[in-house]
Design goal:
mainly alpha, disordered C terminus
Length: 148
């Protein structure tokens, strides 16, 4: 299962001013630590789909990936394991599919994983459904790749 979730609070969800409902939902899962990432992923919708904007988007998203790694480090201390082991138990999620994919891509790059290793970032509903047995955690969920 998932020990901890770094839940990206998508920019478009933030401006709707209804709160981070996905994080609230995930906090209902027993024994799962949920950390909210309230920084921009750097994708920016269609803007982020242009290869000419990738470098700028990566710089912007660095703040979010730092928060994810900082949360993993904090969770590792609590659990008494290495940061590398904790990253394998951490799932990155966002309501925004573009942000999810971009954050995973940036983390893979920072961790030296094979580019486009196809780690599967999960939607919050997929994470919520896993402990209930509704759906299994995909084999290639975020950073299970890091342990290989």
């Amino acid at each position: 299962g998932v020990d901890s979730v770094s839940m990206h609070f998508a920019c478009h969800s933030r401006v709707q001013n209804v709160g981070n409902k996905a994080a609230e939902l995930l906090q209902m899962i027993p024994s799962t630590e949920v950390s909210v990432i309230d920084k921009c992923s750097g994708h920016g919708g269609l803007w982020g789909c242009k290869s000419s904007n990738f470098e700028t988007g990566s710089k912007v998203g660095k703040l979010a990936t730092r928060m994810i790694k900082r949360n993993a480090s904090k969770d590792a201390k609590k659990a008494g394991r290495s940061v590398e082991d904790q990253m394998c138990k951490t799932c990155v999620s966002s309501e925004c599919p573009l942000a999810r994919g971009h954050l995973v891509q940036l983390l893979e790059k920072e961790l030296g994983l094979e580019t486009q290793s196809h780690a599967n970032p999960l939607h919050p509903i997929q994470i919520f459904a896993t402990p209930m047995g509704v759906m299994p955690l995909p084999e290639q969920s975020l950073l299970t790749m890091a342990s290989n």
